[in-house]
Amino acid sequence: MEDNKPRIIKKRYIFMAALMIIAGVGLVVIPDFDKMKEAHAEEMLLQIMSDEKVFSTDEIAEMLISGDPLLQLIDVRTPEEFEKFSLPGAINIPLADLLTKDETGHYKWNDALNQDVKTTVFYSNGDIYASRAWSLCTRLKFKNVYFMNGGLNGWFETIIQPKAPAVSASVEEEKLYQFRLGARQYFLGGGVVETAAATAPTSAQPTKKAGKKAGGGGGC
Amino acid sequence: MGPLTDIGVLNSNWELLIALVLGIGFGYVLEAAGFSTSRKLAGVFYGYDFVVWRVFFTAALTAMVGLMYFSYLDWIDLSLIYVNKTFLGSAIAGGVIMGLGFIIGGFCPGTSVCAVAIGKLDGLIFLGGVFIGIFLFGATFPLIEEFYTSGALGSILVYDVLGISAGMFVFILILFAIVSFYLTARIQRKAKPVRY
Questions:
Q1: C-beta atoms of A37 and B181 within 8 A
Q2: Which CATH class is domain A41-215?
């Protein structure tokens, strides 16, 4: 018994359905998605081997003194350490919090870290934590991320308590020493502090500033 | 890598213009597919026309598969895409109201605007009802606010809840769609045809 209603299954339906099934199977069998978002190992090695990822303490001091508006210092130490001392204008994002996600599933610090306007410079006491923060952000392909070479220990050795160059030192070394002495004056507020610079008077103001920034999620 | 406005390729002011262009295209396709006819839309519930089901399900699947492959090719960052938050109470109540309105009126909000655009009176009345509803909702919002935000689950995704990968979820949905297309076509074949 033949009726004149159209057939249910037309050839083009089968074709479209097959196309969709193939696309669906493809999604099931292709490897993990998340890995694709990260930088490739070779790419990372290249960046690790280059000096482009670091700023020296002198460069940071110069940027701070000149009031570079694009500099965004991120202190990856614990909040307690940050309270005691931090560089002027730094934001405190403890390393453990770096990849924390908010309730919408986005990285909490995405606005501050994943942008291409400001120069983000991580620092910690030494190099280790800051460089880890740097490599995490690099793997996430965040742009303009760096870390401060030598960390705060290096900061104290070079900026706060610079060693006088030897008598046989070059003009450049002498110039650098003069710059550091000037920078020390700037960061210590003019007073001469021989030791225990960890209680530098600059700590109060930047902490307040940082608190405000952290609350706003660091948008720009 | 997208979304274009989030990564700064396009200024976010472009979003409105892009929305306008997409909206005009969407309206055109709705009208071209016959969605400005309330009988065709109501056909889903009476079993004589499942075009609405097929079109919207296909659109959703196409978008899903497209986004997944774009993400795989690193053309789009899915973590930057906004996911609406789920409020279970209001989602269920809203679904029931929307469904009832769909059966009774023969339109969903978008298609009613399409119907108005080609001068249909039932579409105009439906749209009037939509605006009365919006006004009532706004005026009574303080009374229903607690219910409105009840059952908050955050930005959850079905495949996360089920504990399967996104790709697997899309694949299952594709199979489900194809089976449903076949079954609804059989139902439609048996139903008495309606002329409109």
A1: no
A2: alpha beta
